[in-house]
Amino acid sequence: MSTTGILEFLTIFILAIFVGNEVVARVPSILHTPLMSGSNAIHGIVLVGAMIIMGTATGTAQIILGFFAVLLATLNIVGGFTVTDRMLEMFKSKPGDGPPRGGSKSKSADAEGGAK
Amino acid sequence: MTLTIWIDLIYLLAAVAFIVALKGLSSPKQARNGNLLAAGAAIVAVGATFFNPEAQFSSHTTNLILAIVAMVLGAVIAVPVARMVKMTAMPQLVAIFNGVGGGAAALISITVFLQHSDSAAKPAVYTIAEVLLGLLIGCVSFSGSAIAFAKLQELMTGRPITYPAQQVINGLVGVAIVALALATLLTGSVTLMVITAVLSLVLGIIFVLPIGGADVPVLISLLNSFTGLAVAASGFTLDNNLLIIAGTLVGASGILLTRMMSKAMGRSLSNVLFSAFGSVVTAAGGADGTGETRQVKTGTPEDIGVLLAYARKVVIIPGYGLAVAQAQHTARELADLLMERGVEVFYAIHPVAGRMPGHMNVLLAEANVPYDELKEMDEANPEMATADVALVVGANDTVNPAAKNTPGSPIYGMPIINADEAEHVIFLKRSMRPGFAGIDNELLFNEKTTLLFGDAKDTLAKLVAGVQEA
After folding, report:
1. Residue segments in chain B with a per-residue pLDDT below the cut of 70
2. ipTM of the predicted structure?
3. What domains, with CATH codes, occur in chain B?
């Protein structure tokens, strides 16, 4: 990688910090757990890196390391998304009732009706 | 060449999808769609990686097969575990999935280090620095998450584990890691790299030991953020924008989320991480022996059923005890019954009720409790003084008035639900054992408090019967 290369990556890194801060700036406390779990799943994309490492691995040691990197990353990404979906699924009152309702009054009334 | 461009474009789209998904996860209406969007983007990005020339799968068939085997194995383990684990065990499950992500980042770093040390060309200093950064953070996140899991799963004590000069020793280990990492950077020695990795694993363990069980969720959020940064470091190592963006997003939003969580507990992050919260208290509680000698008032489900049935306003304050007893459905049954009789009922949810912020909402949503019957602490507290009955189900620390009026108490300053302001306070408890924070609760000895001992689900079922007969 050239010096300009690393500068480009640093630029992306720093901009992503601001985006990361901005997108979760106002999250209600009821969503703290699902958000943590969801972002946990997102960093499971390390699987892409693990696959690249596995593909280029040569020799037994590297192949074993690569294999476990792919295995662990798969656990992270698959488990992470599945468990988050299960959490968010619970916010529905009944099947087919659409996405969970937020603060709006009319929607909450629907929820109550739907639950009884 | 064009293939590389297509794959980079797919990675870019996946990165954008992750940003949109994270935004969606921050709003109740879009949360589930956000998660599905992120999952879809991840599948596409992983699929594209099979064709990524950098991965060289076309010329390394054995590696390709092994990668597929590892992925299938991972999915076969992860899906049933994630589907079957009880909702109450959710926090430790998140800890484990986070830890393995950190572990994957660390393994990537080790492999890249070995590849560089095998090749004749000497890599640039910053290349090795990136590798070491990913290794260090990944290892800390891996072992730290493992200890967090053990604490929540009660494989080990949830109490803070302290030893003399703890912070000094931990600090010295940190300094040693930095020194070793610098030495590795200069020499390129594989042995030094391995020692750095082992010491980083040790740091992860000793960093988590002094953190008490009640604070572990905040810690998991922080470790989640760490893993994000480790993934970003892997992205720098592999020149991969997707990993840099996704990892940094999680790293940055994770730190913000961690701070929001500690704020919900009324404490600063450094207080959570370094104060060995709860360790002093155990000693104090033992010395008083208050739990044994002082009088508490217990009642019968029939009496309390009558009290509830003829109340005007009942506030249910659920805690972790409700969750472990799987009593959320019975609680809802009781609430519905009372509402049929014209009693005003709502649930007051402390931000850290359960074991993670928002955990209680998830559990009550599972029992189909309508969203508008749940009131967050700030909304509920002004109404507590007008409530006839505060029904505390398996909660303790979140209603402990010591947080308001005992400056020496470790939970002093933590916002609580003002159950003590209600006319009657009913505690459904398993035993006189103190709560997760390990401190006594004055409210239990208050004259307007009545206790009902037993499993929360059984007791609630008896209350339902009591109300029906009233």
Report:
1. 1, 266, 275-294, 433-438
2. 0.80
3. 98-277 (no CATH), 294-469 (3.40.50.1220)
